[in-house]
Each structure stands twice: as C-alpha cells, then as structure tokens.
Design goal:
Length: about 120
C-alpha cells in the first residue's frame, strides 16, 4: 500500500515542480524542492556550531527507515534500529550497525552499548 501511494505522489507536480516522497517507519514524507535530513542537519550545524572545524566522526546518527538514507551516506558513524532490516535492500547507503531491537528498544540497546563503552 505504501509503495502504491509513493508512486502516485511522485507523479504529482505543484507549481510546476515535481513532488517528492519517501517512506518513514510511520508515515510518508512529501515535499517540493531539495530537502532531506542531511541538508537540514548541515544547515543547523552551520548556523549553530563551528561547522568547518567539526569532525563528522564525532557525530553519530540513528535511523529506522528510507528517509534516513542521506544521513547514513553523510556520516561515518551510523546506526539503524532493527525495523530497518527489511528495507536495507532498498538503501544504497546503509547504517554501519543495526540493533537487535526495534524502535525505542533498539535505541535503548544502542544507548546501553554506548554507555558501557565509556
């Protein structure tokens, strides 16, 4: 069902611009223009940190769906919670590590792992 909706949405135009869409774990993201999590994250960091001196290896990201691919591609330290597993074949850029737990349980698993490594 989600794939059918994505296909239909991607055939739309708004004010002459193509409508873009991607699937999240709980919804479909729809937008016009060039937007993704990486673009928004870079903009935030440029406005609120010394972006040029940031070491991207010190930034970690955890995601759970197709709309996280831009972050998986950009950052060297990425994680996915287990419910991303069925979607891995659709991703060109994948998380470097996938938890055993789904959703919040996977996030808690990762948090426990990081705390234990301190």
């Amino acid at each position: 069902m989600a794939e059918t909706l994505l296909t239909a949405i991607r055939q739309l135009t708004l004010n002459g611009q193509p409508v873009k869409a991607t699937q999240s774990s709980i919804h479909i993201n729809v937008w016009v223009g060039e937007h993704n999590k990486r673009i928004a994250s870079e903009l935030y960091l440029k406005q609120n940190a010394d972006f040029e001196s940031l070491n991207l290896a010190n930034i970690a990201y955890i995601g759970d769906s197709l709309n996280d691919e831009a972050m998986f591609e950009w950052l060297p330290t990425t994680f996915g919670v287990n419910n991303i597993t069925p979607l891995l074949g659709k991703l060109n850029a994948k998380p470097k590590y996938v938890t055993r737990g789904n959703g919040g349980y996977g996030f808690a698993e990762l948090a426990d792992l990081l705390i234990s490594m301190r």
